[in-house]
Structure formats: structure tokens, C-alpha cells
Amino acid sequence: MPQKDPCQKQACAIQKCLQANKYLESLCEEVIRDMRRCCEAQGGNSVCCSGFKDPKPTEDKSDT
């Protein structure tokens, strides 16, 4: 029997939250943070994390 993905619970929570909130990511920030924490803790041992990338730090776009 295949082992359950360690971050599957968080991945499902994101989908449920997005569906309930008309896919507005800003309303699901907490569950997205939970997923990032899980992916960091698993260090690549989660298939669910394979397509879940941390956002790149935004560069300062001001022209000062």
C-alpha cells in the first residue's frame, strides 16, 4: 500500500479554501503558509510540493 503524502492534507485544504473563496488567494494565505511550512519540513519528500514553489523575493521596483 503506497504511503500517504505528508503534505496532502495541506494541499487539499488549499483547494477547499480556494473553491470556497472563488479562487481569491488572498483569502487563503494561512492555508498556503501551512503548505509552505510542510514542504520546507519535508525537504522534497512530498509529491504535493513538487509544483508548489515559494514566491521569489520581490525586487524593489521603485526608481529612486
UniProtKB/TrEMBL annotation:
Lineage: Eukaryota, Metazoa, Chordata, Craniata, Vertebrata
Name of the protein described by the UniProt record: C-x(9)-C motif containing 4 homolog (S. cerevisiae)
Ranges in coiled-coil conformation: none
Pfam families (UniProt xref): CMC4
Keyword tRNA-binding assigned: no
PROSITE patterns assigned to the protein according to its UniProt record, in alphabetical order: CHCH (PS51808)
Naturally occurring in which organism (per UniProt): Fundulus heteroclitus (Killifish)
Disulfide-bonded cysteines: 7-38, 17-28, 39-49
A cellular component term, taken from the record's GO annotations: mitochondrial intermembrane space
Similarity remark: Belongs to the CMC4 family.
SUPFAM superfamilies: Cysteine alpha-hairpin motif (SSF47072)
